[in-house]
Amino acid sequence: MSNVKYTNDHEWIKVEGDTAAVGITTYARHALGDLVFLELPETGRQIKKGDDFAVVESVKAASEIYTPVSGEIVEINEALQDDLEGLKEDIDTGWIVKIKMNNAEEAASLMDKQAYDAFVAGLE
Amino acid sequence: MKQTPLHSVHTALNAQMAEFAGYDMPIQYEQGVLKEHNWTREQAGLFDVSHMGQITLEGEGVTEFLQKLTPSTFSKANNVAKYTVLMNEEGGMIDDLIVTRLSENKFFAVINAGCKDKDIAWIKENLPEGITLTHFEDRALIALQGPKAENALKQALGIDTSELNYMRYMEDGDYFISRLGYTGEDGFEISMPNDQAAEVWNKLSALESVAPVGLAARDSLRLEMGYPLYGHDIDATTSPVEADVTWVMGKKQNTTFIGAERVLNELENGASRKRVGIKLTGRGVAREGAEIFDKDGSTQLGTLTSGGFAPTLQAAIGQGYVSQGNIGDAVIVRVRGRDIEAEIADIPFVQARTKKTVKKAA
After folding, report:
1. How large is the ipTM?
2. Which of A92, B50, B264, B321 fits as disulfide partner to B302, beta carbons 3.0 to 4.6 Å?
3. What is the reported pTM?
């Protein structure tokens, strides 16, 4: 069974133990258009499911990224700030933050790849 | 939602559509805003601006009437276009617009889409007897902007503009052609009957040098030029002195326009705030609503009225009103609680490349 899950806000999370790496999907990346800046949070911040934790600035607009799980931000991917092309649906390198979860059930209730793909197909 | 005569052309091009001033408009096409922006600076960008209002004012005394509605004076020469503003009684601005003298007693004006209804109501409210206002809802407007625009117009439509200067107007059959725009590049706005718009668009876009450009790049292009956007950078509360557009008043000063009292007072005694350019030197992007502070971050100087990323400069820029400060001063722009270093900058951020005056051979 895959440990990568998806949200209907077009984020993906990869769960390892009690830690979740969070990134944005190809669909979100395409919708954002030309990226110019990524604003990252500080580590140590406590966030609740549904909070915005980062902001992606494209030429057109600023878009917030929401966390699908609650917990503490334990790592941020600063390398992305210098390489915005790296912000993509790559579960090894494209993550924005890693969150130490305090409620694993939040992750379990998200969509799997198949369900997410069907969700995206329904949007087009 | 209203549609322009080119709506089906945009959807066929898979444009990303969104509401703007009550119209369903193309925000960007498949190239995306960055490429569309650069294309306009390097080639020729094609814009549907049919949502804008086209009107004429005609009748004896129309020059005097316009000199009451606006703080400008109008040259007697025909076919000269002028940027000016419609004033309210309080010295604020109802709209900004381009006014072109067609003949002694007739002017053509292009007004903002979002201001059409109130502009027309205001003009009618003040309309003297003998002057007629006509609103051309049966005409489309296409802008062609960029260094390749003159050639494209010649190739696609056989219209020779080599002797048409910047801010000048000509007619060619059903087309009204003005050499001006909102991008800082050489280019044209072409008015035509609605039923000819698709044909003109298709002929122009068939050329290799021409690509469609949406409203997103139109905004980043005008931002680089420091042009104000009505409803954001200027509005009914801002005066031409505050907005730093007193050049619309010209040398022969008009002192009897609507709202003159405040404007003349501010010209003499200064205004309490001024529109300036802001360039971010730190990382980030600041948009409308971001607060501008002094360099210590302790005193708020004003607020950004628009802002975004400038592709030509590869930097974030904006404009806003400040209560004090000079060009070059370091300031702080606060975005979502984060302080970004910035400076007050001269506008335009990018030098205009509009057509140089053509001198006819003797």
Report:
1. 0.82
2. B321
3. 0.93
